[in-house]
Amino acid sequence: MRRYLIRRVAQLVPVLLGIALVTFLIVRLAPGDPAAMLVDTTLLSREELQRFRASLGLDAPWPVQFVSILKQLATGEIHSLRTGQPVLAMLAERLPITAVLLGGAIALSLLLGVPMGVLSARRPYSRLDNWLSIAALGGISLPGFWFGLVLMWVFAGILRVLPASGTGPATSLTYTVFDMAPYFVMPTIVLASGLLPPIMRYTRSSMLEALAQDYVRTARSKGLSESLVLYRHALRNALLPVVTVVGLLVPVLIGSTAVIESVFAMPGIGRLVVEAALNRDYPTIMTLNLLTAVAVLVSTLVVDLLYAVLDPRIELD
Amino acid sequence: MAERALDIAQAMPGARAERRGEWRRFAANPRALAGAVVLVALVASALLAPALAPYDPTEQRPGRVAEPPSAAHPMGTDNFGRDVLSRALWGGRVSQAIGLLSMAVSVVVGVVVGGLAGFYGRAVDGALMRLTETVVTFPTFFLLITLVAVFGARLPLLILAIGLTSWPITARVVRAEFLTLREREFVQAARALGAGGLRTMARHILPNVVPVIVVAATLRVAYVILVEAGLSYLGVGVPPPAASWGSMVAEGREYLFRAWWISFFPGLFIFLTVMTYNLVGDGLRDAFDPQRSAAAGAPRRMRA
Fold first, then answer.
1. Which H/E stretch holds residue A217?
2. Do residues A156 and B260 touch, judged by C-beta distance below 8 A?
3. What is the CATH number of the domain that holds A143?
4. Does A26 contact B150 at a Cβ distance shorter than 8 Å?
5. B31–A134: do the CB atoms touch at under 8 Å?
6. If residue A53 lies in a helix (H) or strand (E), which one and from where to where?
7. Structure ipTM over 0.90, yes or no
């Protein structure tokens, strides 16, 4: 177990270096001077411009810049080109919103998706199964931003039961978690709409497989009630692949926060990525890309470990 | 936005069952058939947009701004008085073309990577699969936003970028097929007769992988159209003056509560297009591989 962990963590290093290099190259190969985004370069004399670029570290050769950025990243001393704020502080400020959205969407998808998958698997090819599978396909096909706008139009525009956007009432400066909760309802639903269908489909197919196993027949022949057979015997074993699906979809889910946070005007990580990219705030872009990659890699690792915990037959070494 | 990756990957092995009767099976599947009919209509409406669109999609009519749907404008007019239906029909050309081209890039890369990995195995396989894993674990949507934002929105760049970040699923599926096929007698025979690696792959293995590639490609179009729509919504997609469905939804956002139709209808086109590509893709998969059929109304015993 420990050896496995060490090996896995060691494998992360080249992947992360690769990602750092790719993002660095993208921003450095881009046309246009980042300095020009900050000041009107036509107003500066050549010496002033040179001094300004030097102060940003933009005059050094690329490899030097790359190493210095890595150093800044490692020590946390990396600052936004735009605001001068430390990037990690900007991140910390925005992380809770994205974390709540992601956590809520995963929980909601599991709470609804797993039972729906079980329901589908109980009578495969029944009318209910068919409708659920069409609904799942519909969920997969929904463009998140459009679904978000439609919800906003209906629930905030027509019915006026939910706030349209933001993360808290604009009228007061001090509000509680309870005041904030309604603002998270629609974004969470939209985020979950991409995750719930795959969870449902995987629960279904995995349940069908489990229900055909000998131990299920044995459980049935013992005269156990159907729900006991379904939930205690079949579902327990069927949940394993579902865990993997959630793990595999985390990168996709994180990616969709960019769109969803923009639709609902929520200052989270996804929105920060969009802002940083549009502002060519290179240090911020690099930090965000790298840290999301770390988050994703760690979550993949956790899923693999969880797998071994849930299924003793799996050996990691 | 969701990932069909897992579906394709799980469904594919053993897809070369019998070849006859695929179309019959496809046509007997009401869901797939309905999807195909709507999809053909959507593609045709994009192709025929110049003839079908009742108005010039760019003509602004200051006196007829944000009019609700009516007989003259079935989907209303937008904030510049442009006809939403005409714009959506023209936008379909942009969205569909980008979708198909990005899919082509994605499928070509996926087939080459997957084919080489599956055929040569060992170190080649190891290296290529590590690369594939890296691309999969990376939140590619962030990378796309970065890429398009810093290089500026340009169509070739957009197509390449979407294609180059969405190939891993195809690669995995194709690799699995190559792995099993390379052990088969007819491949061994070809090699024994002196056929080189490239020739064996192209002439003997690839034709047998075509169904898998077709299914993967169909589902990929659905995915890349969603990705492009998302980017265009954020303003880092299709560069103006061209407008894809995603950019039209974004244009209407400000007017959502006063003129919902400006955003609603272009988005509906995205949804229908993606849904029908998915329906057709699923239908093709079931038709190529009847064992795994999930077709509606086909009563079948549980798989043992």
1. helix A214-221
2. no
3. 1.10.3720.10
4. yes
5. yes
6. helix A46-55
7. no
Asked if B233 reaches chain A (Cβ–Cβ under 8 Å), the answer is yes
Buried b (16+ CB within 10 A) or exposed e, A44-76: eeeeebeebbeebebeeeeeebbeebbebbeee
Provide the pLDDT confidence category of residue B19 given band limits of 50, 70 and 90: low
DSSP for A273-292?
HHHHHHHT-HHHHHHHHHHH
Which domain does A175 fall in, by range?
A: 94-279
Residue A86 three-state SS: strand
CB contact under 8 A, B147 and A26: yes
B121 occurs within a structural domain: yes
Q: What CATH code is carried by the domain that includes residue B117?
A: 1.10.3720.10
Q: Under an 8 A CB cutoff, do A274 and B234 touch?
A: yes
- Indicate yes or no: CB of A145 within 8 angstroms of CB of B246: yes
Predicted local distance difference test score (pLDDT) of residue A134: 92
Let me know if residue B204 belongs to a domain: yes
CA distance A79 to A284: 7
Nearest chain A Cα to B260, which residue? A153
**B146/A278 touch (CB, cutoff 8 Å), yes or no:** no
Three state DSSP letters for B79-138: CCCCEHHHHHHHHHHHHHHHHHHHHHHHHHHHHHHHHHHHHHCHHHHHHHHHHHHHHHHC
Bigger pLDDT: A74 or A40? Answer: A74
Chain B residues within an 8 Å CB radius of A259: 1, 230, 233-234
Cβ distance B3 to A23 less than 8 Å, yes or no, reads: no
* Chain B residues closer than 8 Å to A217 by CB: none
**Whole domain around residue B156: which residue ranges?**
2-8+29-50+75-296
Of A146, A277, A297, the CB nearest to B150: A277
Token pair, residue A211, equals: 């229900």
CB contact at 8 A, B61 and B81: yes
The residues pairing with B73 across neighbouring beta strands, listed in sequence order, are: none
Helix segments in chain B, DSSP class H: 5-11, 22-27, 30-47, 49-52, 84-120, 122-137, 140-151, 155-164, 168-181, 185-192, 197-199, 206-234, 245-252, 261-288
Cβ–Cβ of B267/A144 closer than 8 Å?
no
Number of domains in chain B: 1
What does the pLDDT look like over B41-74, one tens digit per residue? Answer: 999 999 999 999 999 988 888 888 888 999 889 9
Is B281 within the bounds of a domain?
A: yes
- Chain A residues whose CB is inside 8 A of the B285 CB are none
For position B1, what pLDDT does the model report?
A: 42
Mutation site for A-interface testing, chosen from B134, B142, B234, B282 by largest number of A Cβ within 10 Å:
B142
- Which comes out higher in pLDDT, residue B61 or A155? A155
**Quick one: closest CA in A to B223, which residue?**
A141
Q: What angle do CA B202, B206, B208 make, to 5 degrees?
A: 140
Could you count the other beta carbons within 10 Å of the beta carbon of residue A212?
14
Q: Is B7 on the interface with A (CB under 8 A)?
A: yes
